[in-house]
Amino acid sequence: MNNIIIAWRNLWRNKRRTLITVASVFFGVLFSTVMTSMQEGSYSSMVDNVVKFYSGYIQVHSEDYWENKTINNTFEPTDSLIDKISQVKEVIHFTPRLESFALASSEEITKGVMVLGVDPVKESQVTGIEKWIEKGRYLNPGDKGILVGIDLAKYLQLDLNDTIVLLSQGYHGISAAGKYPIAGILNFPSPELNRQTLYMELSNCQDFYSAYNLLTSLVIMVKNQYDLPDAMKELRNEISSPFSVMSWNEMQPELVQMIEADRAGGVFMKALLYMIIGFGILGTIMMMISERRREMGVMVAIGMQRFKLGNIIFFETLFIGFLGVLVGFLGSIPIIGYYYNNPIRLPADAAEIMIEMGIEPLLYFSWMPSVFYNQVITIFVITALIAIYPVYKSRTMKVNLALRA
């Protein structure tokens, strides 16, 4: 205990030296935390673009549907199936869908589109689609109107209350054709959805495709990704053939691979950053030891045991590390909090590339607790390892040379 008290007092004998050393740890924590938050925030944004605007966290299909996405691989939902989903405690909402493709046309302009037949009330609970209405109104039960993405409407040169013509192939090869008024125009954060998505009321869509009472999927939402494993386990235990249960990462393997590849590159960048931080901290500790070399020599010369001197210096370095990571943690909170609520908009060239990839051109930050404590622990461990250096120097110091320093 005496060694700890002495170490704490020693820190404040030379406040400037202590503050410089603490600052090196502070900036290390700050830079690594902000970098990690930005990286994880980008990944979360990619997942949100898929999960919260379209796929949901989990989907239930006919077991042949995912390999062959045709209107023929649909299923009729049963009360038993609905009850099994409703009883899973992690599930907060779910909605039925009938999805297929069609050729949309206006005058002489045509474009292939993705048609989603949805239950207006349940779909809004799952994906919050209602809040993305830019013009017009949302769908009502039994509605004959449709919703189109803003970029799709511009391409087809259509506006509210204009008529869009849809042509497709219905259930078991039946011809599907119809004219529908545009009730609303959607403006999603996801450019891909804006370019090719069209929403119809479920019964209207089933009538268009002659797929009465049939669905392609039940889209399920859980509170967050941490509830996903438990929900998947329970749903797969309860739901079996002729249905299949898939999570978002199984439905979007390309996105998962892209995130993992980018994360691997991020690990290399963070390792490089940690090396720079480590050498920066080591440099300030070496400076501190060099400045105190004569002091340490005098203490050993008048009878202090090298072991005790090493312990005191070790605790001094740990205190510096603790103060540095604490201040770095507290300093990173307002910075990340600000950018979490105010994402950075990318410049024009970079934004265009992101839009082409179907990703919202904003740089998001993550607020996950792991972003903070992982960096705090890592930098503190680096500091603790560096604390071995002054202990080694105190043990190997030649007193006669130190007294002449």
Briefly say what this structure is.
The chain is of the alpha+beta class.
Number of strands: 12
**End-to-end separation:** 30 Å
One letter per element, helices H and strands E, the order comes to HHEHEEHEEHEEHEHEHEHHHHEHEHHH
Structural classification: alpha+beta
> Portion of residues in helices?
55-70%
Classify the beta-strand content into a percent band: 15-25%
Report the biggest beta sheet as strand number plus sense, adding barrel if it closes.
6 strands, mixed, barrel
Taking pLDDT < 50 over at least 5 consecutive residues as the criterion, the unreliable ranges are none
Q: Going across the major beta sheet, what is the strand order?
A: 2-3-8-5-7-6
CA radius of gyration: 31 Å
Mean pLDDT: 85
**3D shape:** elongated
Number of helical segments with 4 or more residues:
16
Structural domain tally: 2
